Sequence to fold (1001 residues):
Amino acid sequence: MKNYLLFRAWASYVLPSLLYFLVLCYAPNSSAQNAPITGTVADALGILPGVTIQIKNKSTTTTTDANGAFQITAALEDTLVFSYIGYLKVEVVVGTQTHLNILLKEDATALEEVLVNAGYYKVKDKERTGSIAKITAKDIENQPVTNVLATMQGRMAGVNITQTTGVPGGGFDIQIRGLNSVRTNGNDPLYLINGVPYSSAAIGSGLASAGLLPRPANPLNSIPPDQIESIEILKDADATAIYGSRGANGVVLITTKTGKSGQTTFDVSLSTGFGTVPRFIKLLNTAQYLEMREEAFANDGFTTLPASAYDVNGTWDRDRYTDWEEVFLGGTSERTSVTASVSGGSEQTQYRAGASFNKETSVFPGDFSYKKAAFTLSAHNVSENKKWESTFTTGYTVQDNVQPRGDLSTVARTLAPNAPALYNPDGSLNWENSTWSNPLRNLEGGYTATIYDLLANAFLSYQLTPQLALKSSIGYTKTDNLEVAAVPSTQYDPASGVGPDKSFLKKDSSLRSSWIVEPQIQYRNQWGQLRMDALVGSTFQSRSGQQFGMTGFGFSSNSLLYNMSSASTKTINIDTEDTYRYAAIFGRINLNWNEKYILNVTGRRDGSSRFGPGKQFANFGALGAAWIFSNEPLFKNQSLLSFGKLRGSYGSTGSDQIGDYQFLDSYVSTGNDYGGVIGLEPARLYNPNFGWESSQKSEVALELGFWNDRIFLTAGYYNNRSSSQLAGMPLPGTTGFASLQTNLAATVQNTGTELTLRTVNFDHKDFSWSSSLNVTFAQNKLLSFPDLASSTYQNMYVIGESLNIKKVYEFTGVDPTTGLYTFKDYNGDGLITAEEDRKKVKDFNPSYYGGLHNSVRYKQFQLDFLFQFVKQQNYTATAYFAPAGIQFQQPVSALNHWQQEGDSAPHQLYTTGANSAAMNAVSKYMDSNAVIGDASYVRLKNLSISYRLPNMLTKRFQCKLFLEGQNLLTFTNYEGADPEFKSAGFLPPLRVISGGFQLTL
Fold:
């Protein structure tokens, strides 16, 4: 009974208390119950779409929509992490809040993750052991340019880029840490678009574009800058070794834009503007010109002006003056650009589709234009279990370029200022009674180029285990180019009686396609403080090309000119096919100990079809190391040094950039009919013994961040040596061949110091200002070249000097007695000859170059500007003009000349061409150091001003108004048209101003 009473008491009082306690312990606590949290995210300029919101230490994530709004389900004790590229992370404990308004601040100096290659690996900037430079869409979108290389000028240390022409369709020269090869076509870097190699070799033979473009059309024009997310330049051995021989001259990684999860977002951008030639050469007026011509005739002993001297004998109006630079180059290039994209998706699938259209007219007189339309599509998918991942991107570009048959820059600067009017009163071309050749004849006919470009790639990945993943990258490219140059008989003076039987048409078509497959295995693991990342893969690549060029002569009518079958005579200029095969295996092991000591080992074995049996394969590799000493205990608990890293690398790369079939004995068609048969002739001797060029690269660099990286300095020194140069060895004429392809034991060295400084000068809610400075001091030197004196390169190179030199005569002034140019007689034999006296060396490599970029924000206003600077030498304006006194225009500097015995002047006496001694002196003068001078400059390369409308006015969309400029101001003592420009007779880069708006819906 007693036990029963005790049990009853326990059941009545203790058991309910115990059950209540258990309920409290195991039932969901009110503070742990999930609840929907809403809010918005913005920065100082307005709402931010695409911001990632994640519950800390959990997999639950979401992103803000186009209006910057979000919703996520979280518990009260959860912490929400807000992150967005370029901004500082924000962490907020939910607590009792149900609605959050988050303000993100820009992190101008954050060491973000840098994508080295989507198909290989990625590395955090602070942990990289190699040298990598990067610009993002934020830098690219502020520039009104059409070629991707233009976006990089002045923004990256160690990367020197110059524009070859201002005519649309032209290209750029790029050097990453100098010239490595004695071959001018052996210094191109490797371009990869989303991991797919993209050939930078010129498309077309250049036969149709000759006279308009300095070299054949540039394929990089096919890449629309507005669709690019980032561009990275890999420079040292550690960064490039995983690409083996393909990365010998550096690697340019281009990543296009992709979609982000969240609500569907529409982006539309429209801009319009104009381009003009930024500066002209100061030329003689009519009075000065006629005085020069009359003095020249007097110097040459003419007592009566010749009947053919129309400019000075009164046939042409002696009072007439025309600024021909203004007439032929003073037009305005109108520019229009439209881009649109739609993107969005879920956590598993994201997509983006984009399209753009660009059109620009010409500064030349006439109806000419360059049009480019591009379409891109990307899709990314991750399975729910996070094991499968796939990415697909594709892009298609069409270019339509209609230009005059030749560049009018030369005629604009050489035509006499009193030359006749271009047109007759009835609008027809004026031939002034056959006394001149009307320059507008070059506008008859014209040049057209149509280029179709397709690029597609897929990336697949499967996570076998948490440590092991299988990956594969597949890519395909195709470029189809058709160029036509038409020359109708209407270009000739009608008085000559020339008809369409003298018309001719040039057609040049080329097709290039390639595919690549790269299977890979990646292994990642961590044991205590040691983290390892290993990668093994292989590459299989094939590229093929076809090229066909034809000229048709003689047509029954000019209306049939563009129909090649109507030509009475046809000539095949070029008809070739080529195939290139490449295969490789590669591997990488990265070891990271305690986030302080990092070792990166890379190796690759390459195989190329461009070498003979036994020489087709070569091994390359690199070793990179870094010490993040700011993570040492000595530097903890102090605010001065926020980051410090010492890194270095050493490795070897190679090159097979020699063209296809170079080791084979090959034959070409003679094109000549002999007995009804077209024969063959030998073109190249068989030599299976030459192999890969090799380059040894080393670098050491120091990276320092101060005061939470508000000041960040990177200083690096590199030393690269290239040997076993692939070049032609000269052969005796009796062999029937000029040279034999072989490896020359020549060694080229590139050394340099690169400095980059980033600073956050002010960082407040309403005002921020950041700066970035980069400067490169580089030196190129030919260390050795056995038997150089007996080779075909004897007049091109000098041991101990740069590859980019000119051997010229040394100008010693004007003889005060004879009035003729004089030059140093090096061997003292009393004669000035090229072999013995052209010994003066002028180096055209820049002594240093770089850029200074500033970004200033005040509330909704944003100002970005970039100054580019170069210290260099170049040909002066005088080098591009004929001898003073003949029937050609001259710069005003030609007025300072010798006139009588005893005169001291920089220019010799005038001559019409009849004075052989004067003409011989002029010939040497044009090949002397007298026409080479300082071409250093500081240029306001880019300026962008934008205003983002406040949210109160645009609640459902974002709107940004902008004004952009390119090549706006140039500060220089150079007397020519443009100090950067190195292509004589071609249009210099234009000054471009553009404005528009961008909407995000």
Summary: DSSP finds eight helices and 49 strands in the chain. The longest strand covers residues 569-593. The domain at 113-256 is CATH 2.170.130.10 (Ferric Hydroxamate Uptake Protein; Chain A, domain 1).
